[in-house]
Queue: 2 jobs
Job 1
Amino acid sequence: MLYYRRKILLAILEVFGGRLSAIQLQKYLFLMTRQQAEKSFYFVPFKYGCFSFQANQDMKTLGTYGYITIDDNSYTLKDLTGNYIGQLNLFDQQFVRDIYSKFGSMSQDELVAYIYIHYPFYAINSTIASQLLSRDELKKVNAQRRTKKEKQLFTIGYEGVSLEQYINKLIIEDIHVLCDVRKNAYSQKYGFSRSQLEKACKGVGIQYIHIPALGIESDKRQSLCSQKDYDILFAEYEETVLQQQTESLKYVHNLIRTNKRVALTCFEKNPSQCHRTRVAYALMGLSNKEYSLTQIVF
């Protein structure tokens, strides 16, 4: 059975004649989701503009399942009689058809330029913006860049958000280094295992560093039911692991000194239920610190 979001991808391919470049698909999907009250996909500013990691992964999966063929950075729908558009709700059907009506005759460059002009934030990491935009249009793109000079330590959890929402939050806060303090940087949630997260960060100019020495063994987290349980675990963590990880704490401290804006990350949405907060407090307790602490919440 197909996930609904994958039906959207197939419907776009179907309505646009069965074949699109990877760039075109991402751009049409972006424009379509601008119309949705509850978006099926989120996007980050990537090297060719707006990009959804989830959509890219879904297209690979659709290729594996035999719905499409993938070649030369293009997608071809295998079955043009599937009526995928008819499997969408009436609103999404209309959104897809409206995108085809308004943008279907544009060249790829015209399509990309349109999005850069109307959604300049998504062009801030583009490698082709200077080829497509005027000087004034590029100024509007550059005005979207977040540049902050203050040294600051952040904490952020990825529970309940997509990879794209998470990465955008890092961009908005102008975070330069993401320190993953999980013991094992693996997640069943798409995008948050080490290789995926590192690749996503690299694509938007953020350095990713895994520091497993600051993590907590997963078996110690299995029976946590109340805030009191978390507090007991974290008190033990402070008295054992953190006491033994002076060098790791100094390493992060030096990262802040040299890179200015550094975030600690783990899973939990609630800062009081994640050990990253205790790591942050330990860093705030070091001498000669020149940074403040911000807990990022969604």
Job 2
Amino acid sequence: MGARVATFLRRKVIQPFIELLRQGITPERIALTIALGITLGVTPVLGSTSILCTLAALALHLNLPAIQLVNGLVYPLQLTMIVPFLRLGAWMFRVAPPAVSVPYLFNLIRANVWHAIATLWTATLHALVAWLTFGCIATGLLYLLLVPLLRRLWLRVRTTPEVAA
């Protein structure tokens, strides 16, 4: 099972980014694409990440399929980060944290999306402030971490002849 997962990740995640490097997209642009895809992908508002990633890709001339790939990969992380962002937002605004869990949020949304929005409006705004604070720092750190790694990969790709499939 581990070999299948590794093969899947290589084919569907790593190889597309190697192809971008072969097409001449700079390691810096790919690092920015990945960093923003991760950061925007964990936005504490369900259903917003695809729109945010599309807007970022269009505004910054990034590769749209690549940022959406990263966005999709971090979806489980978004689900695990919603409640911590709600709690961090409550702490930042010195209010009681909402008593929520991910299953509760899904049930609330399934029952009536407008009621869910009205119920969680203030808590969500607080979570967004927490996410913005965290996201700015995280994007910068991810970018700084990814650039040297992608430069090394770029050098390896440039010096290794492409094998025909």
